[in-house]
Amino acid sequence: MHEETLKEMARQLRQPHGEHAAEVGERMNKGNQEINLLTIQTLDAQANDVILEIGMGNGFFVKDILSLAPAIHYIGCDFSEPMVEAAILLNKEFINNSQAKFFVASADALPFESPTFNKVFTVNTIYFWDNPASVLHELKRVLKPQGQLLIAIRPKEIMEQYAFTQYGFTMYTKEDLSLLLEENGFKIIQAIEAQEPDQEINGETIKVGSLIICAEKA
């Protein structure tokens, strides 16, 4: 595949934009379905939880979170305006019922008071954090005492199979991510690794796996 095509793929995955934003959002829903559903299961949302998601895309999986228990309050933040607009359209019922809100915001500058949330999670976004320590400081700020943070990724050995990840992606092993969290004020609770169905990309079969690190605000 041409280098410029790979670079544009990387840019779109980082921040969906322009005329292809909606298509990118749909592709992410399909390609990331397994890791999203596993993360939501691991989140173990309970009644009255106040949950923040960083990088929810078009908000397709919000319904799965809110169905887990009554009186869950969900907030989604994304720095892609088209994704936030799509999430608002897709989740109008939940917004009208005061169950969900969506904001255009960067992960290192969240528009919330501290502390607000008892659970924060993010799926496949940490690759794009220019300053991970700054983001984790901000997530720690908005978390309540003993609040939980879940970070879900494709491990480095999986991500290295994709040609576009050489452009602007920072990849992590389980050990890398665990150490990063520990160095920035989080206590590791558990690490979950799961094998997903193989994916076919450009005629090649790619092995796919998920990693979820669950941590607690120390």
Automatic annotation (TrEMBL):
Keyword Transferase belongs to the record: yes
All residue ranges annotated as the Methyltransferase type domain in the record: 52-151
Metabolic or biological pathway, per its Swiss-Prot or TrEMBL entry: Lipid metabolism; Phospholipid metabolism
Taxonomic classification: Bacteria, Pseudomonadati, Bacteroidota, Cytophagia, Cytophagales
Pfam family, one: Methyltransf_11
Keywords: Methyltransferase, Transferase
Sample GO molecular function, one term: S-adenosylmethionine-dependent methyltransferase activity
Species, as recorded: Emticicia agri
Protein name as it appears in the record: Class I SAM-dependent methyltransferase
BP terms from Gene Ontology: methylation
